[in-house]
Write a structure and sequence with these properties.
The protein is an alpha+beta fold. The chain is built from 13 helices and 16 strands. The protein folds into 2 domains: 6-121, Creatine Amidinohydrolase, Chain A, domain 1, CATH 3.40.350; 122-392, Creatinase/methionine aminopeptidase superfamily (Creatine Amidinohydrolase, Alpha-Beta Complex), CATH 3.90.230. The protein has helices at 14-20, 28-34, 45-54, 74-85, 94-105, 115-122, 127-150, 157-170, 233-251, 259-275, 282-296, 372-378, 384-392, and strands spanning 6-9, 38-41, 59-61, 111-113, 175-176, 181-184, 205-209, 212-214, 217-218, 222-226, 305-306, 332-335, 338-341, 346-349, 352-356, 361-363. α9 packs antiparallel against α10 and α10 runs antiparallel to α11.
């Protein structure tokens, strides 16, 4: 009885093997590795589709574009739309072309979208998936910590990417989960800034957002720290109230309660933090108040974005129409609320990787420093460059 299904793959490329090493082709070895019942030659696929069509079977295939490394679903989907609508191109996506060929080969069969089924399965993570996301988060945090040690006035943004990538590879990552988001000074308000070309200046804040792909699972962690290793008075005031509101939001995470209610409850806690703070900057106070007001009146259905096989992972099944959205144990996601004070030239966005548990949540990236004293202490430690230079001078 077929349980694991079948795959159809190309034959070995012997020419490529001579330069790149042995490949796995159709046969028993591939079936053992994949756990499928059989892995057959791709040339056999046409016969199978014809047989499916003659039997009138329903055919399921993904309709959405394939997501490759360093990306999430929105990127290839957007590229496919742009290509299709380009008056000088107009090509359909690979998936659209494949669907057309399926319909032509099996005209009696109905072709259905497989993506909703897969999304439903991906929403709640298994214990094995959680273990991989936990390790991806650990590696991300270690990379971020090295970047904080390395940071110094006069460096370029791209130089902070290097120690993180060293850590990623050292601990077995396949690569990056997404392009490095290293922003300093006036670049910090741009959440997906990734040019990496600005030099760190004295008085800059640095926003570092980078994580690895570990065994096809990813994480997403962000920290903000001063380029020179010391927060200014104004930066301390801004960071402290933001952190209090950030933790108020995190504290409300738990399953079985409408997310809208959790967000509004977090807003009330944010208000308490504001009321207990003595502000020296009126623009910071106004920005914090507007931030809390948005949460107190929120009708939202999410805290942030899911993480898993993609950094902006699919969220799984949706509730019945009219039913409130609630968190479920086994979901993994990040929170990354942004706060900006243009009048003071300040912007802030922290981010942690969270796992929903039966009673609340677990912060997988809690070991990465968040408090001002811990950040400043860490930044006094030597970075990788200093250690390399010390060894070179022996």
């Amino acid at each position: 009885m077929m349980r694991g299904g079948m795959a159809y793959i190309p034959p070995k490329n012997t020419g490529r093997e001579r330069s790149q090493g042995p490949e796995i082709g159709p046969g028993d070895e591939a079936a053992t590795i994949t756990g499928l019942d059989a892995v057959l030659a791709r040339d056999e696929f046409a016969k199978a589709v014809t047989a499916f069509g003659q039997a009138g079977r329903i055919l399921y295939t993904p309709f959405a574009p394939e997501v490759l490394g360093n990306a999430s679903g929105a990127e290839p989907a957007g590229q496919a739309r742009a290509t299709l609508n380009d008056p000088w191109d107009g090509r359909p996506s690979r998936e659209t072309a494949f669907i057309a060929k399926l319909k032509a080969a099996a005209p009696a069969s109905e072709v259905r979208d497989f993506d909703p089924i897969i999304r439903g399965l991906r929403g709640i993570k298994s214990a094995r998936e959680i273990a991989k996301i936990r390790e991806a988060t650990r590696i991300a945090g270690l990379g971020l910590i090295e970047a904080m040690r390395e940071a110094d006035v006069g460096m370029y943004e791209y130089e902070l990417q290097a120690p993180a990538e060293y850590i990623f590879k050292k601990y077995g990552s396949q690569g990056a989960a997404y392009f490095a988001l290293v922003a300093t000074g006036p670049n910090v308000p741009y959440s997906h800034y990734h040019r990496g070309s600005r030099k760190l200046a004295d008085g800059d804040l640095v926003q570092f957002d980078y994580a690895p792909d570990y065994n096809y699972y990813v994480s997403d962690v962000t920290r903000v720290f001063p380029a020179n290793g010391r927060f200014t008075r104004k930066q301390r005031e801004f960071y402290s109230i933001y952190l209090a509101m950030y933790r108020a939001l995190m504290s409300e995470i738990r399953p079985g309660v409408p997310v809208r209610d959790l967000l509004q409850a977090a807003g009330k806690k944010m208000q308490a933090a504001i009321d207990g703070t003595t502000f020296t900057s009126e623009p910071i106070r106004r920005a914090a108040q507007a931030f809390a007001d948005r949460y107190k009146a929120s009708q939202g259905s999410s805290f942030g974005h899911s993480i898993g096989l993609e950094v902006h992972d699919v969220a799984g099944g949706r509730p019945a129409p009219g039913a409130p959205v609630m968190l479920q144990a086994g979901q993994t996601f990040t929170i990354e609320p942004a706060l900006q004070v243009p009048e003071e030239g300040l912007a802030m966005r922290l981010e942690d990787a969270l796992l929903v548990t039966p009673t609340g949540y677990l912060n997988l990236s809690a070991f990465v420093p968040l408090e001002i004293p811990a950040i400043e202490k860490l930044m006094q430690e030597p970075g990788i460059s200093a250690l390399i230079k010390k060894r070179g001078n022996r």
